Protein 1
Amino acid sequence: MSVIEVSDLRKSYGGRAVVDGVSFAVEEGEIFGILGPNGAGKTTTVECVEGLRTPDAGRVRVTGLDPVTDHERVTRVLGAQLQQSELQAKLTVREALELYAAFHPHPLDWRPLAERLGLTPKLASRFGKLSGGQKQRLFIALALIGNPRIVVLDELTTGLDPRARRDTWELIEDIRTGGVTVLLVTHFMEEAQRLCDRIAVIDGGRVAALDSPAGLIRRTAGSTVISFTPSAPLDERDLNGLPALVSVEHKDGRITLAGTDETVNAVITLLACNRITALQLRVTDATLDDAFLDLTKETAA
Ligand SMILES: Nc1ncnc2c1ncn2[C@@H]1O[C@H](COP(=O)(O)OP(=O)(O)OP(=O)(O)O)[C@@H](O)[C@H]1O
């Protein structure tokens, strides 16, 4: 069942389309990622889902509700991560949790939530004195306090150190295991690859691709790279004739080929037929980074 439906969403500023016909659906219980370069229209899209911006055209539904006309009801099913500026520096963690719990008709008990997020030792600390990671944990707690079915997290781990980032990822997985659907806007490929069931790559206000992380990688031209130093020279025509080959590079006697598994199998056969040994043979898969660069290269050009 889709809990978020976006179809042909459009939004312009000063006559410039920043969201230009975006469509996707988020299924209940999944972690759905929105990935894209700076200025691609990710936040604008997500803010239309939250009902914070009114679309110029298109249709947005959150559990069947219109986020603009049914804003009140949408805020009960959808929890959104606050921006830094929305909390006063002098508010303590406990006060923030109590305050935000009071905004909701059926809030979660904030004590176990604070415990789960590792905030119990910080309850008396003022927001302004928290570390970046502690602030993020508090924002996640505040997004979840209304007991939402869906939580929207935008740039969740920006500014966190690697340890805090990994802890936050575990937390997001726990949240999903608890039955909450997660809509995640991120710049971090590793984060998207690790957490998301599906990803919409948004570029220039449009959906450039929508697939699982593995599916996006498979679409990348040259998704497998094989490199080796041959024990004897190889015929250049044989190399260029390899199936599904995307590129061949020679450097310091080493050959690097980008292609698919078919290319790898064919090069191994070619080497065997010519009784050539492949020294320091390495085969690597493309990453989501490669897929992202490939999918968004037109706007970068
Ligand atoms: N209120 C506004 N008025 C005018 N232009 C805006 C407004 N909000 C966003 N924009 C412009 O719309 C474009 C898309 O912005 P948006 O914040 O949606 O992108 P984004 O993909 O979230 O980018 P980033 O990754 O940098 O946060 C940008 O060029 C931005 O400058």
Protein 2
Amino acid sequence: MKNLTVVKVGGGVLENEESSSQFLKAFAALEGNKLLVHGGGRLADQYLLKLGLKPNMVNGRRVTDKDTLEVVTMVYGGLVNKQLVANLQSRKVNAIGLTGADGNLIVSVKRPSDDGVDWGFVGDPIEVNADTLNDLVGQGTVPVIAPLTHDGKGTLLNTNADTMATVVSVALARHYEVTLIFAFDKAGVLTDVDDDNSVVEKIDEAGFAEMKASGQIHSGMIPKLESAFEALNEGIRKIRIVGFANISNEKAGTTLQLEK
Ligand SMILES: Nc1ncnc2c1ncn2[C@@H]1O[C@H](COP(=O)(O)OP(=O)(O)O)[C@@H](O)[C@H]1O
Ligand SMILES: CC(=O)N[C@@H](CCC(=O)OP(=O)(O)O)C(=O)O
């Protein structure tokens, strides 16, 4: 089977021009088939505030009312996605920018209200059109996917970018040996979130549970690891969580392990 590297890059990297450019340089240099899933949560926060709207995150996911959906559609599907594509084109990577609605790539269902949270226009993916992505990759293009999906009835939905990367990787595992890399603004999973020298080299689900219980792992790292372990259990060959400039360094960052 052919290899494919799926990279997810988060808003912490993209909100800063220098880190964004450093990441894109490293991504452009990756050899072989590749695909990029991007977030942009922190940029969405900035634009929401500029427009007088209040960001509302619960357990790492954004409560998305109608106004917020309009802003995230513009920020993720427009500004961030197209800037990434243009930057990659300048590096001779033939990127093609897509949301989950384009080519019917990802269909999702509106997340039901739970624990008293009305999520609004948040989508949980139920179907990924892996064949279309496979065709694009096969043509030598590099899909760049924004964290927006659709319900098949005309409504766009906001979907967590870590979840997008996971479902895309799992769906493409039918066609490729997939390596999934979460690139972000820390060196990896850390025992001390303020110390980039405290990288945990390998983590399994028991280790994750322990670090979560002790409070060493918190906030955005919880949903990231939850979706990453789901992908590992569904047959993704290798999953790494690593600093944005080190994606091609096999030894850098944290590698997820199946329970022994
Ligand atoms: N143990 C940990 N190791 C590294 N980062 C952690 C840890 N616990 C919490 N975090 C936080 O998780 C953040 C990454 O999650 P998130 O902001 O959702 O990422 P992204 O930028 O990829 O969207 C880090 O910036 C860090 O503040
Ligand atoms: C439903 C939901 O939470 N959607 C996310 C999508 C963007 C994202 O995940 O961006 P990062 O990777 O930069 O965090 C949000 O709007 O924040």
